[in-house]
Amino acid sequence: MRNALGLMLASVGAAVVIAAVWFWTSSPRASRVVEIDTTGGPGFGFAHFKQLDFLTDKEIVLTFDDGPWPVNTPSVLKALADECTKAVFFPIGKHATYHPEILKQVAAAGHSVGAHTWSHANLNAKKMNEQQARDEIEKGFSAVKLALGAAPSPFFRFPQLQHGPAAVAYLGSRNVAIFSCDVDSFDFKAKDATQIINSVMTKIDKAGKGIILMHDFQRHTAEALPLLLRRLKAGGYKVVQMKAKAPLQTLADYDEALVKDMKLPVASARPVNNVVQTVSD
Ligand SMILES: [Zn+2]
User: Fold this and answer.
1) Residue at 168 is within a domain
2) Looking at residue 154, which CATH number applies to its domain?
3) How far, in Å, CA of 133 to CA of 166, rounded?
């Protein structure tokens, strides 16, 4: 009798444990959303900025650069949606003008969208003067706005994490937050998805928390993401979404210049049938 009761209690206990494990592994973990007041251009990511330590142990922020790009960006979006997870995207202005419909999908999925310059120029390069750096920054944001049909978040990441002092000061004057990172995946150098997963897990386990830099532009990253997100979850990591308190006011001059640029010059307005005639079928 005692044995039977013990057995019954043991099996009830086991069922509870199994149910708890199932619930923990199958349900999306509650994640924190933080709102960022970008006044004065705060910097994030311990690789360059150590002032604002807002993540607690095992909290991570997912960030993706260099998109939007066909196939890879939509794959990244699907992987994030499958885990009910939100990220911050830093698109390249030119890419935003090539694929505005993909960038719209990023924003529609609820992710934060900042900018990453117009043409991915190194703003800290010797040949780059202050005006050129400002043009790269502003044109990048205007391109994102044009693609989205809505203002981007005042979030910026320098190409190659090359923080030029004049550009940093300028972003501060524009009240744009600067994103460095804590963990650089170097996914663009990885030979396959497995290498990205192992590299990110090793680095984040060492750091314990932080902003992770990846590229939705890269095929291997898109391939790695479903398993990487599961590994992060199994490791007890929780994703924090960073949202801007207010959108960026892009500058009208750059918005207008970009719209002009986008309109291709038309040499002739003659209808196609007047120009091209089938003479032999
Ligand atoms: Zn980049």
Assistant:
1) yes
2) 3.20.20.370
3) 9
Model pLDDT, residue 21: 46
> What's residue 11's pLDDT?
59
pLDDT at 279: 82
- Report yes or no on 273 lying in a domain: no
Closest CA to 243 of 90, 109, 113: 113
Is 92 contained in some domain?
A: yes
Closest to 212 in 3D by CA, of 231, 190, 240, 177 = 240
Ligand 1 center–CA 27 separation, angstroms: 33
Number of domains in the chain: 1
Calculate how far, in angstroms, residue 26's C-alpha sits from the geometric centre of ligand 1.
33
What whole-number distance in Å separates Cα of residue 108 and Cα of residue 243? Answer: 14
Q: Are the C-beta atoms of residues 69 and 103 closer than 8 Å to each other?
A: no
pLDDT at 9: 55
Position 31 scores a pLDDT of: 77
**Full DSSP string of 42-73:** -EE-TTT--S---PPTTEEEEEEES---TTHH
pTM score, whole prediction:
0.84
| Centroid of ligand 1 to alpha carbon of 246 (angstroms) | 24
Q: In this structure, is residue 181 part of a structural domain?
A: yes
Distance 37 CA to ligand 1 centre (A): 24
Counting as low any pLDDT under 70, the low residues of the chain are 1-30, 264-269
**What tokens were used for 247?**
């959108």
For residue 34, give its domain range.
27-262
